Fold this protein.
Amino acid sequence: MFKNIAAYGWMLIDGLILTIEIALLSFMVAILFGLIGAYGKLGRSRINRFMANCYTVIIRGIPEYVLLLVLYYQGAQLIRSIVSLWSEPQGFIEINSFIAGFITLGFVYGAYATEAFRGAILAIPKGQVEAAYACGMSRWLMARRILVPQMWRFALPALGNIWLILLKSTAIISLIGLEELTRKSRIAGGATRDPLLFFGIAAIMYLLLTVVSTFIIKYLERKNNYELRKPGI
Amino acid sequence: MDFQLLQQYWPDLLKGAWLTVQLVSLSLLIGFILAALIALAALSRYRICRCAAQGYIFIFRGSPLLVQIYLIYYGSSQIGWVQDSFLWAILIDAYWCALIALTLNTSAYTAEIIRGAMSNVPQGAIEAGQAFGMSRWLLLRRIILPQAFRLMLPAYSNEVIQMLHASSLVGAITLLDLTAAAQNLISRTYASNTFYLAIAFIYLATTYLISGLFRLAEKRLYRHLNRSH
């Protein structure tokens, strides 16, 4: 058992690092899509609102694994047909599983982040928005100075949950061949005929990631809410 | 979208959909019963029960479902005493492994939902029940559980939808659920657009059917509160 761990341990650590990388990248993409989605949902333009609603409704209704398959296997075709709108595509386009993985996860969790940001922006007292307009701020200046700095605090609990779910969803990307933690442990388990050990180690690593993330989220929440803390509790 | 292909192959998709429905409904049913017990343990007076329940919830909520499925399918067959017992016949079959993994996974999430709902039942209602001299079980049966059931509905509807989506992963251990059936058809016919669109639509429709049903149930259970409107 220890011989196997010594032989394949580094492989698992590599996988763990890749898992963390892809989770962080997906989370950033998710925040980006979330901001765009929230802008669409709360904006004045009816078309944007409709599109943002379609985005959240459709994405939240389809399993992420199906979306991943679609993007991974169909994405190349899609890019090809988009490129061919203005020029003849040259060569063969292939999306690698890393890019397909983090874009899909980011796109999926962006739909959840949209709701988080929307809720957070709506939680900001309306009086502040009116006060900003009364001071003569434009819409963008108001958004930049009043909404964006404050919304993180309200969005943080929901974003924390999204991060925890996203972290575990990265395991799905192993199904399209990305060699992250789950895939590496599968390889190691197959090679040593000891899948119990390696999947067990993978599960423990995921649990550790969850624990560390929970601590960081709690810390950020405490730090963020220092003036909202109720006295005496 | 090629309707002719769909017309030709819909029995395969239907078979996959039936497997998905089976897995999801069975695991939700068994998982709910398990979850109720775990939630009771998590709120128990005894520290050992609380720790065990919290550990269970932590482990199953903290690790990915895919790893859990692999652990049960590939890992469990390695343990000596499992091989000698009747469990061997169960754990050798991908269907039962998937069902067990999904059940354990949903029971942890549901237990957390039930626990949250039970601790959100108004303290006054519980005290009133105690003042009537109800025993712990009577209180649980008549006051806490009915109210908790109502409180947990929105979160539970999300869990049901999550399970529907999570069941798409059982293809990883050779089961032909809706997603895997579509993949199978795609490798046979190369009509990826058609079948991906078809299953995406099926999942989408089912998801919103479920959330609609739950909203209806919620409306019904809360109807005493909006009589005035």
Residues 164 and 206 of chain B are 9 Å apart (CA to CA). The longest helix of chain B spans residues 3-42.
